[in-house]
Amino acid sequence: MSKKLKVGILGATGMVGQRYVTLLADHPWFEVVLVAASPHSAGKTYAEAVAGRWKMSVPIPAKVKELSVLDVNQVNLIAEQVDFVFSAVNMAKDQIRKIEEEYAKTETPVVSNNSAHRWTPDVPMIVPEINPEHTEVIKYQRQRLGTSRGFIAVKPNCSIQSYAPALSAWQQFEPTQVIATTYQAISGAGKNFEDAPEILNNVIPFIGGEEEKSEKEPLKIWGRVDPTDGVIIPATTPVITSQCLRVPVLYGHTAAAFVNFKQKVTKEELISALESFRGVPQELQLPSAPQQFIQYLTADDRPQVRYDVNFEHGMGISIGRLRPDKIFDWKFVGLSHNTARGAAGGAILCAELLKSQGYITAK
Q1: In terms of CATH, what superfamily is 5-157+344-356?
Q2: Which residues are identified as catalytic?
């Protein structure tokens, strides 16, 4: 690619924003030319704005370090300087919905990590390997917004990435009922151990809003675009029930899941479906795509966060402990990296898909 697309990061000083900054440092298609955050950070250099709260294990990329942070509310000023934006703003949901639509109406595509627009019916919620066809709803969203180029696309909740990909690989066997309990890292709340002393030697059995997301978001991902109404119609099966716990882990969401299927299926067939599952990102060899989307681990004590969370640079999913259950048909354990695949990395892969489909172009 001869000329990189110009990218702005909204909410660049938070943990997810910082992950965007590091993952995009040497991206072959995208270049970070602008960072924006709250008015409190505006006017500072990026290095000054994150001083004392840089949470990544690598240094701030040199190209971003001296960028002057803009006020995220300066929509027109920011939109004039970029081809599209990644959104990771920390605001109330109604404010997020409003400001993301404001950016879209400046003809600036928005790829969002936030949950505010996940249930807007004409906003695609994308896991690129699973539902790339949902980008077709963008043309209907543009009609509603009155735009020719601007739109909003979102990625789903980070925790569902630890079990929904396996269920997607098994759609041919018709899963009907699922129990999923997730054990979620503290970085999912934008914190590290220094910020969250309450998690040390502790498990917190509540994460606000998380169980509803875990039960409903996969159904939108498995839904279909209805061209009559110009919206995404969620699937109705499988029925999912969940519990979500916060555990003393920095990166990595683990899920313990139980599944019933309509069809009889063997362990060998289930494992084969996992290992052979590929999508458009693999076919197109998108820059952030894992070569192997899902790996199956045969050892009884895997997957483990310590050994497996960085599989495929954090963009792959690890599944293990697949075995028959006394009440359900099968049970398994899944693991995903919550800020790579589950947040910034997943959104970057989504943007790569949108670029390859012609939805994101240079202004």
Answers
A1: NAD(P)-binding Rossmann-like Domain (3.40.50.720)
A2: 158, 253
